[in-house]
Specification:
This protein is an alpha+beta fold. The protein has helices spanning about 5-10, 10-20, 25-30, 40-50, 95-105, 135-140, 175-210, and strands spanning about 50-60, 65-70, 75-80, 85-90, 105-115, 120-130, 150-165. It has a seven-stranded antiparallel β-sheet.
Length: about 210
């Protein structure tokens, strides 16, 4: 957990709760960030490998709003160490996150890798760039091979991030994760079936060549 992340989420109310529960003193020494976090190679590689994440924004009335975002692996692009972006595909046309960002750009992103029990939380400020406003930039954050209509892109200035521990993450695997093992298993099954068939043929042949007793 970075100092910047702690500075951001350790509000006075949170610090009071820590003091009341006996953890304030142990955590106080980890504060003191000089500026926004910058993504390093581990964070960039982790984000680039994801095909989905969870996005939280804030309504004008102060309610948190969470939604799932998905796309082809790598659809969240690293623009530079301080900025990420992703294409906004046409969906249910409710535009809640878009509206929230226009009033309050603060967002939280939650990237999960269930198979490897890893998770990355990111805080930032999000803005929208409409497809017609800057086509070249929108194309930079889009995948032409992915069959979905891009209405705009969202650009997020990184404020802070935090790697969480793997505790309580139940491993889950996608079809792509399991594909190599399934392929190997099917190949082994085919190999064994062929061996059994050959044995049956050989056994049948031996029986035909042996005259009946008596």
């Amino acid at each position: 957990m970075t100092a910047r992340f702690l500075e951001t989420v350790f509000t006075p109310a949170v610090r009071a709760a820590q003091a009341a529960n006996g953890s304030r003193e142990a955590l106080a020494g980890r504060l003191g960030a000089d500026g926004p976090d910058r993504l390093g190679e581990p964070e960039a590689a982790f984000i680039a490998a994801r095909d989905s994440f969870y996005l939280a924004s804030v309504t004008e009335t102060g309610w948190p709003y969470m939604q799932h975002r998905g796309g082809p692996p790598g659809f969240v692009r690293i623009i530079d160490p301080a900025t990420i972006g992703f294409a906004d595909f046409r969906g249910n046309r409710q535009y809640v996150s878009l509206g929230n960002a226009s009033a309050d750009g603060r967002v939280a992103l939650f990237f999960m890798d269930y198979a490897r029990r890893a998770r990355l939380k990111l805080l930032g400020r999000m803005r929208a760039v409409e497809a017609g406003a800057d086509p070249d930039f929108v194309a930079l954050l889009s995948d032409a091979a992915y069959k979905a209509r891009v209405e705009r892109v969202f650009v997020i200035s990184v404020e802070a991030f935090d790697w969480n521990c793997p505790q309580h993450i139940t491993p889950r695997y996608t079809a792509a994760d399991l594909a190599p093992s399934v392929h190997a298993m099917r190949a082994r099954i085919a190999e064994l079936e062929a061996a059994l068939a050959e044995r049956d043929r050989a056994t049948a042949g031996d029986g035909a060549a042996t005259p009946p007793a008596g």
